[in-house]
Specification:
Layout lengths: L9 H10 L19 E7 L3 H16 L4 E7 L4 H12 L6 E5 L12 E2 L3 H6 L9 H6 L1 E2 L2 E2 L2 E2 L1 E10 H6 L15 H12 L7 E2 L6 H13 L17 H14 L11 H9 L5 E5 L3 H7 L3 E5 L9 E4 L1 E6 L6 H16 L10 E2 L2 H4 L2 H4 L4 H4 L6 E2 L13 H15 L3 H16 L14
Helix pairs in contact: 1-3, 8-9, 8-16, 16-17
Protein name: Extracellular solute-binding protein
InterPro entries: Bact_solute-bd_prot1, SBP, TAT_signal
Pfam families: SBP_bac_8
Length: 445
């Protein structure tokens, strides 16, 4: 590996060290691209499987559409290996021109200078600005008053349903959509009706050993109270106890053996729905291809608003500029063009189930005909991300800590208040530590 730049700041050194905490550094470095025409842009991402195939197609399209740049992708392992490698590349002067990050991870990277902010004026010149994104998604890209990430999508938690089973249960309207439910009692009644027509359960929900699955449903229900969890650096977590307990208690009510299996892991829940044995499934939009491949009759919708406020847990794959000590002006400007080009051509990204963040795509007539994607596209206007903190976000330990606190209550029907209190104790212990990526404590979200 090349040695770190002599111009690297003390804060960047701290940031790089912080990103290594609890993870293993991957060996090897991506060699720098050689200068030529078209200019080569290094692009790192963590998309694999169907998402990776779709991204390859999008890159082929933008590469073929112009002759000024050619994007060379590097795909790294999801989670800690990816985020560690990205942090060290930004610290050591080997960063790619563009990379994908989950929007929820930006709060842990921006403080120490691991990311460069986007020039919003240049983006606007290319047709990418606040007016072309759902408000909560555009706002999530900001940290410390600057734009650090530009979302490609939103990938929310949704409710899939077997149209044959739900039709037999009498819970579909004349358009074949689920009857609306406006409170927990109505939703429980609907799911019990579906259970009566299903071979297995009314609802498949897998959570065992999966803190992310538990958190996704909990935070959807909690934020539907019109509330957010707040994690002030150096302070105590702020979580409304009554709303948190009510949300967790509803999750317990679903796991009664009739509506949903009391003990189920994620893969078992996916299999139950995919084989037509259950009527509904709580999952992420990323399982769309799985259900299409299974050949079952299904549709999808946003999770019903049960506590008064439209809200659903989500994250976003977002474009970031990993820090470069001395970025090449030509390549930096071409990076802006690449991101704008890909956003404008992101219709095919919906095939992966994700909701494209660029509004001209989702507001197009062609997208309106895309089913079931168009049936949950409105979720992008009501996304609830992880509360911003240096230790939250996809692939972090935060959601696992939630699962460790509440899984026992879901399994045994134990006191939800005690489970919530245990979760807050875990979070407060982490909040008491300074953000290692911002040792001077000068940055605020």
């Amino acid at each position: 590996m090349a040695p770190p730049s002599l111009h690297m700041t003390r804060r960047q050194l701290f940031a790089g060290a912080a990103a290594l905490a609890g993870t293993a550094l991957l060996a090897g470095c991506t060699p720098p691209g050689s200068a030529r025409t078209p200019q080569e842009l290094q692009f790192w991402h963590l998309l694999s499987g169907g998402d990776g195939v779709t991204m390859s197609g999008l890159l082929d399209t933008v590469n073929a559409a112009q002759s000024d740049y050619r994007v060379r992708p590097t795909v790294l392992a999801w989670g800690s290996p990816y985020y560690t490698k990205l942090a060290m590349a930004a610290t050591g002067g080997r960063a790619p021109e563009v990379a994908i990050m989950h929007a929820t991870r930006v709060a842990g990277y921006a403080p120490g200078g691991l990311l460069d902010p986007w020039d919003v004026d240049r983006l606007a010149e290319l047709g990418v600005d606040e007016s072309t994104f759902p408000a909560p998604i555009w706002e999530k890209g900001h940290a410390g008053g600057e734009l650090y990430s530009v979302a490609l999508d939103a990938h929310p938690f949704v409710l899939m349903f077997n149209t044959d089973i739900c039709d037999a249960a009498g819970v579909l309207d004349s358009d074949g959509r689920l009857n609306p439910t406006k409170n927990p009692d109505e939703f429980l009644e609907l799911t019990r009706a579906v259970a009566g027509s299903a071979e297995g359960h009314g609802l498949s929900y897998g959570y065992l050993g999966d803190g992310a699955q538990m958190w996704r449903l909990f935070y959807t229900l909690y934020t539907q109270h019109g509330l957010e969890m707040k994690l002030p650096e150096g302070g105590k977590s702020e979580l409304d106890q009554d709303a948190a307990v009510e949300s967790l208690a509803l999750m317990q009510s679903l796991l009664d053996g009739e509506i949903a299996a009391p003990q189920n892991d994620y893969q078992s829940a996916i299999a139950e729905f995919a084989t037509g044995r259950s009527g509904m499934l709580l999952t992420g939009v990323w399982e769309l291809r799985t259900m299409q491949a299974a050949g079952i009759p299904f549709d999808a919708t946003t999770i019903p608003t049960l506590f008064g406020t439209e809200s659903v847990y989500a994250d976003s794959h977002s474009f970031v500029l990993p820090h470069q000590n001395d970025p090449d002006p030509t390549k930096r400007d071409l990076s802006y063009r690449f991101v704008a080009d890909l956003l404008k051509g992101s219709f095919d990204w919906a095939e992966a189930g994700h909701i494209p963040a660029y509004l001209p795509v989702t507001q197009s007539p062609d997208y309106a005909d895309l089913v079931p994607q168009a049936h949950y596209a409105e979720a992008a206007e009501h996304v609830a991300y992880d509360p911003p903190a240096w230790f939250t976000g996809s692939g972090s330990n935060f959601q696992g800590d939630f699962g460790a606190s509440v899984q026992g209550a879901l399994l045994s029907g134990g006191d939800p208040a005690a489970a919530i209190a245990d979760f807050q104790r875990r979070v407060d212990a982490v909040l008491s530590r300074p953000n290692p990526a911002d040792p001077e404590g000068t940055w605020q979200s």
